[in-house]
């Protein structure tokens, strides 16, 4: 395991490189490098880093990411997915629970296809995640899918 020295970035290209390395470290399960990069206070974080950490058994790192206060859990990607939606889609029950413990998480936010975290978890057969989401008092149980591209 090689830890690269990280200096505070001064411009956009350095931040983009650090974000790439952050996601890469999470995807590779490189806990030491991931924690090292997180020490850069100027580095904007998004929920993809949470997913990468959780998928590699580093839920504690995902929790640290959230505790930094720099991760916008309501941020949507170009398809409208949020961190909760992505975790539900992937069946990351530990991450779903972690996200749901945070304030101001919209459990009913829809992506561009009309799916919520609950409908995505149902669709993918993520039973444990479905149980967790159904345990919420604010969950809306209704089906609405604007478009899903199936080919017969």
Q: In the CATH classification, which architecture of the largest domain applies?
A: Alpha Horseshoe
Radius of gyration: 16 Å
Number of domains: 2
| Measured distance between first and last alpha carbons | 47 Å
Number of helices: 8
Please state the structural category. Answer: mainly alpha
Instruction: Note the overall shape.
Output: globular
Helicity level:
40-55%
For the secondary structure, the number of strands is 0
Q: What is the H/E string? A: HHHHHHHH
Arithmetic mean pLDDT: 79
CATH topology of the largest domain: Serine Threonine Protein Phosphatase 5, Tetratricopeptide repeat
The CATH class of the largest domain, by name, is Mainly Alpha
Beta-strand content: under 5%
Determine the CATH superfamily of the largest domain. Ankyrin repeat-containing domain
Low-confidence blocks of residues: 1-10
Sheet bearing the most strands, described? Answer: none
Walk me through the structure:
The N terminus is likely disordered. The longest helix is centred in the N-terminal third of the chain and has 17 residues. This protein is mostly helical. The protein is 49% helix and 0% strand. The radius of gyration is 16 Å and the shape is globular. The chain has two domains: 72 residues, no CATH class; 79 residues, Serine Threonine Protein Phosphatase 5, Tetratricopeptide repeat, CATH 1.25.40.20. α1 packs antiparallel against α2. The termini are far apart.
């Amino acid at each position: 395991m090689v830890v690269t020295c990280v200096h505070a970035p001064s411009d956009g290209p350095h931040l983009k490189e650090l974000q790439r390395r952050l996601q890469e470290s999470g995807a590779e399960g490189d806990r030491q490098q991931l924690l090292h990069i997180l020490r850069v206070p100027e580095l904007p974080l998004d929920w993809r880093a949470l997913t990468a950490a959780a998928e590699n058994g580093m839920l504690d790192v995902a929790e640290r990411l959230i505790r930094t206060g720099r991760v916008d859990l309501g941020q949507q990607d170009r398809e409208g997915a949020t961190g909760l939606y992505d975790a539900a889609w992937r069946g990351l029950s530990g991450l779903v629970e972690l996200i749901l413990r945070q304030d101001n998480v919209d459990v009913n936010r829809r992506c561009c296809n009309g799916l919520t975290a609950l409908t995505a978890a149902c669709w993918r057969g993520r039973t444990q995640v479905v149980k967790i989401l159904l345990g919420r008092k604010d969950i809306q149980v209704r089906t609405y899918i604007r478009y899903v591209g199936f080919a017969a």
